[in-house]
Amino acid sequence: MIPFDLRFPTTVQEALELLDQYGEEARPMAGGTALVLLMQQRLVTPQVVVSLSRVDGLSSISANGSLRIGALVNHRVVEESPEVKAGWPLLAETYHRVATVRIRNVATVGGGLAHADPNQDPPATLIALNATVTAASSGGKREMPIEDLFKGYYETCLTPDELITELTVPRPVRPLKTAYIKFLPRTADDYATVAVAVALDVADGRCVDARIALNAAGSTPIRARDAENVLRGQPLSDEVFRAAAATVPAIVDPVSDHRGSANYKSRMAEVFVRRALEKATA
Amino acid sequence: MTAHVRFRVNGESHEVDVPEQRLLIDTIRYEVGLTGTKLGCGVGVCGACTVLLDGKMVSTCIMLTAHAEGADILTIEGLAKDGELAPIQKGFLKYGGFQCGICTPGQILAAHALLEYNPHPTEDEIKDWMMGNLCRCTGYYKIIESIEKTAAGEV
What percent of chain B has pLDDT over 70? Predict the structure, then answer.
């Protein structure tokens, strides 16, 4: 790794001041599970690394009303949290399915989102659960829907002086019917060939609202709005699920790689959206 | 720039001055001098470099030494007490949970962490937990058996 100047702010304010001072030259590091790899490969070569490991105040979960997760909470804490398991079981399950225990012990919620790798697991589930993310800078705070965060491969809308501070997931009015499924033809800890999260609000056998999103299907996580529109207001049936899934190949944009050709992945995106809908409502 | 870092390894206090970019695995191997922690893939996937940091298993090949400030680190050398192997080490020996041995320190520490967290795991729970520790000698059945027998007290 190329040498850098390592700083240890102890408050969010100090961290934001350092990011403001050094701008493009600085990168914040939480657990470092992604950033260390990028730095070793010299894809990212910051002069200043702002370690968040000693920053107080971003490491708690609260579930009074909405679920609020501090950006420095690690994946393992989310998957094990009794509040998350009770109120947002799909979120606990999704964080459980990221990489391995070793990585989940260290990788943080905010760090994972800022890394913006479209193959990651949490984003699709967070879109399906209508999550928002809060970013702070020395100039103030802004909150945005999670799907607005991602701009491209490893690219977010955050400016160099901004830091993700919190993730908020609204509490559903009634339990949602949910599923997160990954197509993993190689190994269980591999990135998915395609992955789908669905969250359906169902009353009297009819879909009141639907939110569907895909990972590993393009340069960002992708929300399947056309599929949602097909479902909304309809009674649940295999026919409606098929019609919803049929809209998906047109909105995904996967790359051909060793996990499959772009055409194959587009077809599998349709198949996995249908299966996710079936699993959620089974 | 140099980082001054204090931590404990296997109960013993250490203070080291290392370049800020120095990874924890290199500090453990070359500053502390404990070479049971192995470098495998170097990208956090294979589990050969596993140690327990404050009781939680981590990949030392992708962690800055400075992020271990104040931590209590357990490496494979710290598992045996007073010359007696820990139960999980006896289990791996008795049931042949290794072949070439390069992945074994990581396998044993991961299995130890599992049994601390869940003393009686099912086979599926063992597989789910141990998924991140790769063995290229294809010894997984023996590894699972070693953990199951250790959990059952049959070592």
Answer: 100
